[in-house]
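Q: Given only this backbone (428 positions), what sequence would you predict?
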């Protein structure tokens, strides 16, 4: 979870407390969040909310992080993506302020995401006059949601109190920030009876990220968090927002997805991500297209400069790889997607140039250890890689990657197994 760092109203940095999303070895599926564990977490969060604010919350909501199986840097080019919601989530307990209470237009935020696991990270702002740059660090994510909702016609957003907890690792490319935004908008949609549908909430949280946080992200992450289904990936057309679930029966095929968090933090608010997006937009314009979605895979790119041509080529071929992956999954060939994951990473490394030595080492080592496929996932410049492995080999693969990192002098990675989980919703 990354964000702006120089703002007027401040919140303490939201770093991961011990035990929240960082693990020395790979988690096995039995260790992952389940519905029962979510209920326990929700009860604990509600109790902590009462300690912090002096009364019970109106409810508790969760929103998962996501792993993008394939389709990287295609979403903001109106392309195709294939993410799945993971069984790690942001959870918020929320209570609307009553009109009779002091300062009913104030928003109080608190997060258990503090370095020692006990001291709360806090933020406060007032809704009137809320503008980009007014709230710092993790508080910018719920504030951005408030900002876009308050700008809608016929929507009155009252003040509220919110307590956040999350098991999505920060800076790992698993959409920790979007999980916070989605949990916030789902909670407010319910409490204010706004009647927003899932695609509508995805668009609004994208606006919050783009306009308030200042990160030029696409719409994939929010969509996966909102529309994910257990045991399935989400095939999303980022131009129309048409979404279909595609079966991803990993366990039935004796497979698992191992996440390798390099612990090299990345930020969508940094310049590299925006530069790639600008390059794609320039390439589309030079080719006479509104977006790269309109450019055929085999288009002549000779009129483009070398760098722009490489960026465009990645997007065109990545869209084709998404379609091929969907076709193989629908045919029941889960292991057959491995070579497409490998090709995706090569394109991201060579053409889009968003990988890094740690990501390359994670992918290469996982493949050498017998992974069916592997690639970086997320925006790049750090973050995580995923490896499609035999279910019984996740531990051995993780150990091989950890040893390779140690030999290279890198910080030890965090490794864990994830499974496709349900999208955002009310827990309590």
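A: Predicted residues:
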């Amino acid at each position: 979870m990354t964000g702006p760092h120089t703002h007027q109203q401040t919140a303490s940095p939201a770093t991961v407390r011990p035990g929240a999303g960082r693990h020395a070895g790979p988690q096995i599926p039995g260790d992952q969040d389940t519905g029962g564990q979510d209920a326990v977490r929700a009860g604990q969060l509600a109790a902590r909310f009462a300690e912090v604010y002096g009364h019970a919350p109106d409810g508790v909501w969760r929103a998962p992080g996501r792993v993008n199986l394939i389709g990287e840097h295609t979403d903001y080019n109106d392309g195709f993506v294939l993410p799945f919601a993971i069984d790690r989530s942001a959870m918020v307990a929320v209570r609307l302020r009553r009109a009779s209470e002091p300062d009913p237009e104030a928003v109080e935020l608190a997060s258990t995401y503090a370095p020692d696991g006990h001291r709360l990270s806090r933020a406060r702002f007032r809704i009137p006059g809320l503008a980009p740059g007014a709230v710092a660090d993790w508080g910018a994510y719920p504030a951005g949601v408030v900002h876009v909702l308050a700008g809608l016609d016929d929507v009155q957003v009252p003040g509220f109190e919110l307590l956040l907890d999350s098991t999505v690792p920060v800076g790992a490319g698993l959409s920790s920030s979007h999980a916070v935004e989605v949990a916030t908008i789902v909670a407010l949609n319910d409490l204010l009876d706004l009647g927003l549908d899932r695609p509508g909430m995805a668009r609004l949280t994208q606006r919050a990220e783009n306009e308030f946080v200042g990160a030029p992200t696409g719409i994939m992450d929010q969509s996966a968090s909102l529309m994910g289904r257990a045991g399935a990936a989400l095939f999303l057309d980022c131009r129309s927002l048409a979404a279909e679930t595609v079966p991803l029966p990993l366990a039935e095929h004796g497979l698992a997805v191992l996440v390798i968090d390099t612990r090299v933090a990345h930020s969508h608010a940094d310049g590299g991500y925006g530069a790639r997006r600008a390059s794609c937009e320039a390439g589309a314009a030079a080719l006479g297209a509104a977006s790269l979605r309109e450019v055929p895979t085999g288009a002549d790119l000779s009129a483009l400069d070398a760098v722009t041509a490489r960026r465009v080529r990645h997007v065109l071929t990545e869209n084709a790889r998404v379609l091929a992956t969907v076709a193989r999954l629908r045919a029941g060939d889960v292991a057959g997607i491995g070579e497409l994951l490998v090709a995706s990473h090569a394109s991201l490394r060579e053409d889009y140039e968003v990988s890094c030595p740690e990501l390359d080492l994670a992918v290469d080592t996982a493949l050498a250890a017998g992974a069916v496929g592997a690639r970086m996932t997320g925006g790049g410049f750090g973050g995580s890689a995923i490896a499609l492995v035999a279910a019984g080999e996740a531990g051995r693969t993780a150990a091989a990657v950890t040893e390779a990192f140690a030999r290279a002098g890198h910080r030890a990675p965090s490794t864990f197994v994830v499974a496709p989980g349900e999208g955002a919703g009310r827990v309590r």
